[in-house]
UniProtKB/TrEMBL annotation:
Provenance organism: Micromonospora haikouensis
InterPro entries according to UniProt: 6-blade_b-propeller_TolB-like, NHL2_NHL_rpt_dom, NHL_repeat, Thioredoxin-like_fold, Thioredoxin-like_sf, Thioredoxin_domain
Family matches, as CDD domains: NHL-2_like
Protein origin, superkingdom: Bacteria
Keyword Repeat attached: yes
Taxonomic lineage of the native organism: Bacteria, Bacillati, Actinomycetota, Actinomycetes, Micromonosporales
Family annotation (Pfam families): NHL (PF01436), Thioredoxin_8 (PF13905)
Keywords: Repeat
Positions of the Thioredoxin domain: 1-146
Protein's recorded name: Alkyl hydroperoxide reductase / thiol specific antioxidant / Mal allergen
């Protein structure tokens, strides 16, 4: 048995969802606490929020979840933005604002998300990175309840969560918008879990499609239910006639694509099982209703099918409404920036799509790399963007320009593209003819989409202001645009020191209580390793089935980022109808090569300290 570790005290800039009260660990004594280290840009963190909801409900009298918001992007350090994100994503537990990552370092977190389980006596009993831990957490909570109830150290009762006041606005954190016939607009009202049709003024409510509460249900407009819907795509008329619906909706948190008949508002599920994708990459076509999806964020008609920005697994997928099939289109699930043939390229949380006027190019807002990418002739390229950790607000030549977590793109008739530069609060424009990036508008509240209307106007979905905003008519002209030479940022996390030469990478994984590694469908574990720059690794890159890997680090390279993806399949032990589970995490680990540095690099996928 290893020594028990006392949980570090919770300190930060302030608390949310506590009614103005500062919490201390002493206030949580007697309860089981899950500290969830997250940042609101991170799709894996959003998945974990959804995994924790049923646990919070089931164990309401013994479990307290505390979110610790440790930001990646500069915008995420803004306390108002943190508060908005807590509401946007329906976070119903206390959240500590940790802008300088002090708590992140105190708890030795190395990846978003990381969970730390604290027992009723204030000791850390488990840590785990990534998503897919819900079943294991439930079993661990059951064990802790039994142990501490017997010891008399478990105190049942209400937790410290205090719900904020309900806001009153027509829209609440709208995500994407689509121009309809007659100048009307269809908007995904994401935080109200519905679609809203607005009149051409962008304000007058025509109708709402969806019951307005989180759920999953097909049917008439008033009874259908979504969960944080985002992207919208109008099908070509001849395709809609055969398919039986007009608009495809990315129903993000339900991991579904939904179809909407505009004449009636009826909603039908057209792709996805509702389960989150946790599988292996293949290039096969699947029955669209039998395949798992992962946080589809936007949709667009390109290459004679619907292309899906599958933010949850850093890929693009395709969906054929006529054949009712779906499959992978681009990306390998590795989260990084790499151009090349579609099957070999890397993306990072693609969140916005738009097709050029001539239909030859698909523009992609690749949010986590703060990049604008494009698909053309079977290849993925990069127009603007440097990588996972470089961002800012810098205009000028595209190879020097910087964005900050863009969520939307809009192709213009002249071949240029507008960018919803979300975390810079701006609309930017990239002109491929000149190779220049300029700022069209700024001072916006987290713009998440840009829409070109039939009359040539431009509407911005100003998500954190809960409205659509029309750009001034001259904003798109050369005179209307401006050139900003703002700050350049780089996410700075303390690098791990490693030795030059041989280094052992160990991913630590302990099956959850009551589970065992599952070899039913082949090897139970998988490890993928790459590096940026690639020269950092002389040996050890690639895919294997062992969670330990011998690396050879080039001593002539000062440092870089190790990209590590690990997954482990488990099943319930000693039961007749065992349930299966998959735990997965992607790490971008900054490393510095030093003479005489550590020759072992440990990463915890799931570990117990008991």
């Amino acid at each position: 048995m290893s020594a028990r570790v006392r949980a570090p005290e919770l300190r930060g800039r302030g608390w949310l969802n506590t009614g103005g009260r500062d919490l201390k660990l002493a206030d949580l004594r007697g309860k089981i606490t899950i500290a969830d280290f997250w940042t609101f840009c991170c799709i894996n963190c959003l998945h974990v929020l959804d995994e924790l909801r049923p646990l919070e409900e089931k164990y309401a009298d013994v479990l307290v979840v505390v979110g610790i918001h440790s930001p990646k992007f500069e915008h995420e350090k803004d306390p108002a933005a943190v508060a908005a994100a807590v509401e946007r994503y329906g976070v119903h537990h206390p959240v500590l604002d940790d802008p300088e990552l002090d708590m992140w370092q105190q708890y030795a977190a190395r990846a978003w998300p990381t969970l730390a389980v604290i027992d009723p006596e204030g000791y850390v009993v488990a840590t785990m990175a990534g998503e897919g831990h819900a079943e294991g957490l439930a079993r661990l909570v059951d064990e802790l309840v039994a142990t501490h109830e017997a010891k008399g150290t478990l105190h049942r009762g209400d937790g410290p969560y205090v719900p904020p006041a309900e806001p009153e606005t027509a829209l609440r954190f709208p995500g994407k918008a689509l121009a309809l016939d007659g100048g009307h607009l269809l908007v995904s009202d994401s935080a109200r879990h519905s679609l809203v049709e607005l009149a051409p003024d962008g304000e007058t409510l025509v109708r709402r499609i969806g019951a307005g509460v989180r759920g999953r249900a097909d049917g008439p407009a008033g009874a259908a239910a979504f969960s944080e819907p985002q992207g919208l795509c109008r099908l070509p008329e001849h395709v809609a006639e055969v398919a039986g619906y007009d608009v495809v909706v990315a129903d993000t948190v339900n991991h579904l694509l939904r179809g909407v008949r505009l004449a009636t508002g009826e909603v039908v599920t057209v792709a996805g099982t509702g389960r989150q994708w946790r599988s292996t990459v293949d290039d096969h076509a699947h029955d669209s209703l039998s395949v798992d999806l992962s946080s589809p964020w936007d949709v667009a008609w390109y290459d004679d099918r619907v292309i899906v920005a599958m933010a949850g697994i850093h890929q693009l997928w395709w969906f054929d409404p006529i054949r009712r099939t779906a499959g992978m289109y681009a990306g390998t699930t590795v989260e990084a920036l790499r151009d090349g043939p579609l099957a070999e390229a890397w993306l990072a949380q693609p969140s916005g799509l738009s097709v050029s006027a001539d239909g030859t190019r698909l523009w992609v807002a690749d949010s986590e790399t703060s990049a604008i990418r494009y698909v053309e002739n079977g290849v993925l390229g990069t127009a603007v963007g440097q990588g996972l950790f470089d961002f800012g607000h810098v205009d000028g030549p595209a190879d020097r320009a910087l964005l900050q977590h863009p969520l939307g793109v809009c192709a213009l008739p002249d071949g240029s593209v507008l960018i919803a530069d979300t975390y810079n609060g701006a609309v930017r424009r990239f002109d491929p003819a000149s190779g220049q990036v300029s700022t069209v508008a700024d001072g916006l509240a987290e713009p998440s989409d840009v829409v070109l209307t039939a009359d040539g106007g431009v509407l911005v979905v100003e998500s954190a202001a809960h409205r659509l905003t029309r750009l001034a008519p001259g904003a798109l002209s050369a005179v209307g645009a401006s050139t900003v030479d703002g700050p350049r940022h780089r996410t700075e996390r303390k690098p791990m020191e490693v030795a030059a030469g041989e280094v052992t990478l160990d991913v630590v994984f302990t099956p959850a209580p009551g589970q065992k590694l599952d070899e039913t469908y082949g090897p139970s574990t998988r490890l993928v390793v790459s590096a940026s720059p690639p020269e950092l690794l002389m040996e050890g890159a690639g895919t294997g089935t062992e969670l330990s890997r011998r690396l050879v680090v080039d001593g002539s390279v000062a440092g870089g980022v190790l990209q590590v993806t690990a997954q482990a399949a488990t099943c319930d032990a000693d039961v007749e109808h065992a349930a299966c589970h998959l735990t997965r995490q992607d790490w971008g680990v900054p490393v510095r090569v030093v003479e005489g540095g550590p020759a072992r690099l440990p990463l915890v996928l799931r570990g117990l300290d008991a």
